[in-house]
Amino acid sequence: TVRIGVMTSGGDAQGMNAAVRAIVRTGIHEGAEVFAIREGWQGAIQGGEHIVRLGWSDVSGILSKGGTVIGTARSAEFRTREGQLTAVANLIEKGIDRLIVIGGDGSLTGSRHLCLGWPEYVAELVEAGRITPEQAAQHPRLYIAGLVGSIDNDMVGTDMTIGTDSALHRITEAIDAISSTAESHRRTFIVEVMGRHCGYLALMSAIAGGADYTFLPESPPRPGWEDRMVDVLARGRAAGRRDSILIVAEGAADRDGTPITASRIQDVLRERTGEEARITILGHVQRGGTPSAYDRWMATACGVEAVRQVLDAEPDSEPVLVGVHRDAVHTTGLLSAVEATHRIGDYIASADYDAAVAARGHG
Ligand code: F6P
Fold first, then answer.
1. Is 2 within 8 Å of 95 (Cβ atoms)?
2. Each residue's pLDDT tens digit, 228-259
3. Which pTM value belongs to this model?
4. How far is the CA of 196 from the centre of ligand 1 (A)?
5. How far is 326 from 158, CA to CA, in rounded Å?
6. pLDDT of the residue at 65
7. Is 58 among the residues known to form the active site?
8. What do you get for the CA distance between the two ends of the chain, in Å?
């Protein structure tokens, strides 16, 4: 019987459970055995009880739950050669050579690395007597499908990543709540949202929440932004607006790389207007709680396709990334998606913001 492993890795995201459920049930439906690898790549390294077979009813009732019931971790050990070797040995021990990884950029980059290195690792494990030549012959390749689970929406190859829509809903609710207290007191609030180096959550929530001003990593403000910001807020107040809301992405910075933090913006406002703006850092509230309907169906649809991909894979198949494009499930090469994603970081680091926005594709 074919054995499929499924893991969630890196930061959790709402909708990961929907993907796990779809993968387990589609796998069983297709006649495969599905194993959860608990705590992501860290669990693959630890092996033993971290790799457990899941049945149909083991994934009952998880569709609407936030987080990931099979656990996740950010594994430093997986970045080492020994960590990867041990993970390969444990997967082969369990007869798993088809893997679906639900994770962010870091987890998928590591997965791609292990996939490419698999034949070499297998040879080394045989040499060291850690697996038998028969085991090696049975599992000459690793077939991988990646699903992007991350609230950041920072990966090329999919229009949306699992969790982003839920996080956006959570942020929008928070902005609405903040607006009502801000209006009452005629106050200014600076709201910091997550997203690492990606401004998607900040931009979309600024639009959805009707914010006055936003700071994005891909579009650093030109020098003199302090005056322009104060002017925009003043004009809003002059027009009768009682609240001012600024959204700052956690990765926002000046063109010279100096971070634009909520407290820096607060200082600017204090110096120029005398107002003591309030700061709300939304933090992990954005990542927790119930997944939205979109994240549930999207993760389900991608999970079903990921199982098909690993079951239909041929020896010369490339690892794939399963995501969505124009509201339909879309499959692309994991290798090129990872490389294109990393290029965006390089563009931002070299201050080529237009190229970063164009490469992001949802600028
Ligand atoms: O990648 C998801 C994310 O929530 C980012 O938006 C944020 O920068 C980071 O993870 C926080 O990581 P941690 O949960 O390890 O504090």
1. no
2. 999 999 999 999 999 999 999 999 999 999 99
3. 0.95
4. 7
5. 9
6. 97
7. no
8. 45
- Please tell me the distance from the alpha carbon of residue 37 to that of residue 28, in angstroms, as a whole number: 16
Give the pLDDT band (50/70/90) at residue 361: low
CA of 123 relative to ligand 1 center, distance in Å? 36
What digits encode the pLDDT tens for the residues 142-189? 999 999 999 999 999 999 999 999 999 999 999 999 999 999 999 999
User: Annotated catalytic residue: which of 152, 154, 165, 243?
Assistant: 152
Helices of type H across 81-224: 81-93, 105-127, 133-138, 164-185, 200-208
Best of 8, 108, 152, 153 to mutate for ligand 1, by most ligand atoms within 8 A of CB? 152
- The DSSP code for 292 is P
Ligand 1 first shell, C-beta below 6 A: 11, 104, 150-152, 194-196, 250, 287
Q: Are 71 and 106 in contact (CB under 8 A)?
A: no
